[in-house]
Structure formats: C-alpha cells, structure tokens
Automatic annotation (TrEMBL):
Gene3D superfamilies: 3.30.1330.30, 3.40.1280.10. It comes from the Bacteria. The lineage of its organism: Bacteria, Bacillati, Actinomycetota, Actinomycetes, Micrococcales. It comes from Intrasporangium calvum. CDD domains: SpoU-like_RNA-MTase. This is RNA methyltransferase.
Amino acid sequence: MNESRDLYVSSPSNPRLKALAGLRRRRTREETGQTLVEGHEEIRLALDAGVTPRTLYLCEDLFSPSGRAGSQDIGTQPELVERLRAAGVEIVRLSPAAYGKVSYREGPDGLLAVVDNVGVPLGSLGVAGDHWLGLVAQGVEKPGNLGAMLRTADAAGVDAVLAADPVTDWGNPNVVRASKGTLFALPVASGTTDEIRSWLARHDIALVVTTPETDVLHTDVDYTGRVAIAVGSEKHGVDDALLAAADHRVRIPMHGRANSLNVSVAAAVVLYEAVRQRASRLAPADPA
C-alpha cells in the first residue's frame, strides 16, 4: 500500500479519535450527518452501493493474515484500502491502541469508515410497478433487530424499508453491523405512523399487519400486488392506529410454548411467504 501520504495516529487520546468515538451517540450522528461503518464486508458493500466514505481508519496489525475476512471471495483488505484510496478517500492509519479507542465491535478486522448518514425523505421515495414490496417496522427498539430485518429485506428483494415512529436511527452502528452493510443497498425512510399510513394509501399499497389477534394465517393473503408488511415492537407489537389501517391482519402459527417470535424472525417468515407467492404466480408461463 502507498502509505506515504497517510496520516498516522498512535495515541488513543488524540482529539480526532475522541470526535470519531462520539459518532456512537445518536445526537452526534444527527448533528454531523455522519455515522460509522466497521468491517471489511460492510464497507465493501457500502462502496458497491455507491456510498463513498469520507475517511477510512485502518490498523494493519488487525488485518487477517490472508487479508481476507470470511469465507466468501470478496477481495482482500489491502485491495479494499487501495480501492478507497483511488476514490480519493482520506486514509488514516492507527496503532492498535488507537484503533481500540474507536472500534465498537468484538473481533475487529482493522477497518473503520466514516460515511454520510443514510435515509431519504418519505415523500421522495418512489414506487415503481404493480408488484412493489415494502417492510414497515413500527417502534422497533433494538438496533440489532432492525439491522437483521434490513439484511432479510435485502435478501428477499424488498423495494424499501420504512421505520414508523422509530426508536433508533438508521445510522446506529449496531444497525449497520447487524445489517451486514445491506443498509446501504436499500432505500430506507422514516416517518410517523400517520405519515406512513398516508404514504401507503397515496400509492395504493395494501398494508398487511402481523398480530396474534386474528384467525387469518400469514399464508392466506395474496402478496403479489403492491404490498407493505408491517411488524411492531418486541414488547407491544403494532399499535391500534396501524392495526386500524390494515387491509389484512395476519398471524404466524405457533405450535410450542412461546406465543411469539423475535420480530426480525417474524418479518422474515412473512416476507418469504411473499417471495414464494411471487415466484410461483408471477413467473412467466412456459411456452407451449
């Protein structure tokens, strides 16, 4: 790597690192419009999605011996550094002690980037085609659950994820981490429940709400049109306002002692029922 132009920081008490660690706080993220992305795979996915970091902090002592992170062939850590350098990203090299001051994950791989916060205004979010599929997460408390839902939404080909009355922000580093960077590959927007209800109605999107208070199974609804699937918080589920706006209320059958699933798991179950239906009903017919 061409390191001659890189800034090197060895002291954990460096003021620049104090400001960087401040991005773990929501208030600082909102004030600066920036957040943190840590990890080779997450940074690469953000870059592939068109997000160019402002600064990359690295500690080569933490790179894996092969330069690779994980079993998939996603390139090496030095290759990603050079790709970012070629894009004009500022590179700052850190000592292990300095990197430990700003790292927020266990088993770090020595790569941490500062990027602009994600998310688009709800009103600017477009809806194309007759088979738009969205996920609405209302009041989800845990960043890890929100991130896991983003990862599932990306895998399921969801067109957008909407946070209704959000408890956490999209830039929360644990949302980024749990999403494995897929946060940057999906359109995401936030709003009040009323704003999202109005937006869905304006775009003629059917709302399917998960709740245990119904006899309709999640497999009994047609998901092949314009549909948004809504899940609520772990503690309370969706609220009465969202339930009242539902075109369909559905439940996932429970056969054990537990009466509910983790919210990210519930979202995955219903989303993949939509994927299954779309694959079977929207596939082109075989030629005669």
